[in-house]
């Protein structure tokens, strides 16, 4: 039996705690995924538009400047959502897929409880170095 204790000052979740937080986390992650995809499209548009910027009329230049300002505003909003998750102790792993890890103390070591947007509950875990491809199902009694 491993008697190592979790480091002080870091938030660790049980599966039950992670699942209780899921309604809030799900709402934030949905906003992140939607915004990240929108920003990717806007970035692609701005990149193409700025490539031909030298031949723009003043009206089109003003429109492009407004698009750049809106992009920056939305980027700041995305960062705010990501900071909100971090403040909850949750780690965002992929903003386009909505992949989240909850730090967990299991058998004397730190692991991650892993959740993907639209999964009904937190039902997987993986080692810190394993990533999504190393996910393993939680035992049924440990998930609740």
Please sum up the structure shown.
The protein has 144 residues and is an alpha+beta fold.
Characterise the protein shown here.
The chain has two helices and five strands; from the N terminus they run ααβββββ. The chain is of the alpha+beta class and 144 residues long. It has a five-stranded antiparallel β-sheet. The two termini are 23 Å apart. The model has no long low-confidence stretch (mean pLDDT 89).
> Mean pLDDT score, rounded?
89
Q: Which strand order spans the largest sheet, edge to edge or round the barrel?
A: 1-2-3-4-5
Tell me the overall shape: elongated
> What class do helices, strands and sheet pairing give?
alpha+beta
Largest sheet: 5 strands, antiparallel
Give the strand tally. 5
Q: Note the total helix count.
A: 2
What is the succession of H and E elements? HHEEEEE
Which parts are unreliable, with pLDDT below 50 for 5 consecutive residues or more? none
Rg from alpha-carbon coordinates: 20 Å
Termini Cα gap: 23 Å
The number of domains is: 1
Helix content bin: 40-55%
Approximately how much beta-strand content do the residues carry?
15-25%
Give descriptors for this structure.
2 helices, single chain, 5 strands, elongated
Draw up the topology in text:
Blueprint: H1 15-51, H2 58-88, E1 91-94, E2 99-106, E3 109-116, E4 124-127, E5 136-137
Antiparallel strand pairs: 1-2, 2-3, 3-4, 4-5
Helix pairs in contact: 1-2
